[in-house]
Amino acid sequence: MGFLDPLKGFGVTFGMMFKKVATEKYPEVKKVTAPRYHGKHQLNRHPDGLEKCVGCELCAWACPADAIFVEGGDNTDEERYSPGERYGADYQINYLRCIGCGLCIEACPTRSLTMTNEHELANDNRQVLIFTKEDLLAPLLPGMEMPPHPMRLGETEQDYYVKGPELAKRAQEEAK
Fold it and tell me: Would 7 be classed as within a structural domain?
């Protein structure tokens, strides 16, 4: 052990002392995340406002951290939430467990579950970090309301998927 060894150990420290400090103004100026960043989950909607989630629970089965809970429900003629026979009646994601792997996104057959770029999910209250369906559901577009009739975009489910997008667009244009 030599006499100058302690100074060699502090070489990085002394080298950084004379460099310009790079300060980020984080809360005021937020960095733009990468386009494919895995942030907060979002439950998407069809163009007419109906939910895409059919309550199949495949996302919950694919989650290695067991962070997703889904309970499916049956649509009725009086209450219709999705174009199919079923919908996600209860949907929860526990962000205390979520590891952001994206396997739930890959498992979703209807592309109803996606991940946004929102990354500010920290909180000091554990209960707030369990997101419910209302927290995750994509907002309705301005001027859009839930459809008044259960299958207003077609007589059958197949009509909904084939004719639905063009009829929804026409209905939005008429509403303007």
Answer: no
Within-domain flag for 102? yes
pLDDT tens across 112-171, in order?
999 998 888 999 999 999 999 999 999 876 666 554 434 444 556 566 556 656 666 666
Owning domain of residue 114: 46-137
63 known member of a binding site: yes
Cα 56 to Cα 87: distance, rounded to the nearest angstrom: 8
With respect to residue 9, please indicate whether it lies within any of the assigned structural domains. Answer: no
Residue from 106, 92, 110 nearest 50 by CA: 110
Q: What is the DSSP secondary structure assignment for residue 4, as one 8-state letter? A: T
Instruction: Give the DSSP H or E segment for 91.
Output: strand 86-94
Q: Which residues pair with 74 in a beta bridge?
A: 86
pLDDT digits over 66-117, tens only? 999 999 999 988 888 988 899 999 999 999 999 999 999 999 999 999 999 8
Quick check: 130 and 98 in contact, CB under 8 A? no
As for how many domains the chain has, the answer is 1
Binding residue per annotation — 14? no
Q: Is 104 annotated as a binding residue?
A: yes
| Residue 60 annotated in ligand binding | no
